[in-house]
Amino acid sequence: MRMMMPLNDSSDSLLDFLERSPTPWHATANMAERLETAGFRRLEEMRSWQLSPGDRIYVTRNDSSLIACRLPESPLTALRLVGAHTDSPGLRLKPNPEQTSAGWLQLGVEVYGGALLAPWFDRDLALAGRVHMRKPSGEIASVLLDTRRPVAIIPSLAIHLDREVNNGRAINPQTQMAPVFMQYGQEGDFERLLKGWIEEQHAIKDATPLSFELALYDTQPPARVGVAGELIASARLDNLLSCFIGLEALLASDRSQGALLVANDHEEVGSASAGGAQGPFLSDVLRRINAQVGESGEEGFVRLIQSSRLISCDNAHALHPNFTDKHDAQHGPAINGGPVIKVNANQRYATTSATAAMFSELCREADVPVQRFVTRADMACGSTIGPITAAELGVPTLDVGIPQWGMHSIRETAGSQDAEQLIRVLTLFFNRARLD
């Protein structure tokens, strides 16, 4: 039997990051904490920036999108950019979530993104997200909340009451997916619980919740799976896995070149937001950086962008042993087979032959295998922040990803070796002097 290589420290760090990041706001806060520990300085968009060669800086928007940048000691003429996204499909609470049925207080939910709904049934669900409140002093503030323990469940209907369920049954998220939350609960109980969680987690007594963005998540922790630990199973691998990989590579880079990580929110719902890839966040930050440490003016900015390269990282569909017919016969990426170049003739991915050649050469230099994915010609293809960012900025871009199973499920599966391989390649990319 072929045994896998021993797992390294980054695998433990990955599992910890996944468990502590149940929402985009938590993921962004965790990345910011890691950056500050490594010596990066936080900038505020409302304030004036003072930048110098060699600076290490980061900035967030809406507390759910993040950009981190290492500036070179030499004049800034090009950037090596890696992009990912912080959000994942799932269930979000409605603004007035309380509803009652058969003696139970339930929570009204919306489906965020293209979630695979069936796996959400019979899971131990916690609540996490962001709450805006008024303190007793009158100050308006926001806090992150995470119940950590399961507080809700969406129970399945017994097969005895639906004998055709295994023959394929449509799921109605409005009428069939309201989580059970509290027996004999009354109107106002949810706000009372919110106030209690705020006091418990932030020592703020008698706060008045004003609004919130809260999501349900599965409390089952990430785990290594397989006899030899070949797999990692977790929620939100798409796309926190890429956020972790990009951050690890940025922190491991040698500071010789201009290097930037962008982690956008809202990719799963189209990216059209202030912090999404279709919004101005990345352009705003790049223009401010270029104005201070690059070649000033519009022409200087265009020269910077055209001299730079973006690697958009978002997971790829691995060849599924039970559904091999769902892949093109020549393009079925293997778990633990190395990073995947994603190609689509209709620009659902931004890869060109030039950017693919650059990445292939990086993999060769890093001694990492490289794979390619193309969707079957008779199937629709998903997309990423890659084409959107390329269209917004004009930066030469390619799409790559780690192969995984169960994309958009409440629990997804990837290889335990692939993350480390892509970290090596992206670290080399961040350090590379030439980008052609």
TrEMBL record:
It comes from the Bacteria. Coiled coil: none annotated. GO terms for cellular component: cytoplasm. Its EC number is 3.4.11.-. Gene3D superfamilies: Aminopeptidase i, Domain 2, Zn peptidases. GO terms for biological process: proteolysis. Keywords: Aminopeptidase, Hydrolase, Metal-binding, Metalloprotease, Protease, Zinc. GO terms for molecular function: aminopeptidase activity; metallopeptidase activity; zinc ion binding. Belongs to the peptidase M18 family. NCBIfam families: PRK02813.1. This is M18 family aminopeptidase. It comes from Pistricoccus aurantiacus.
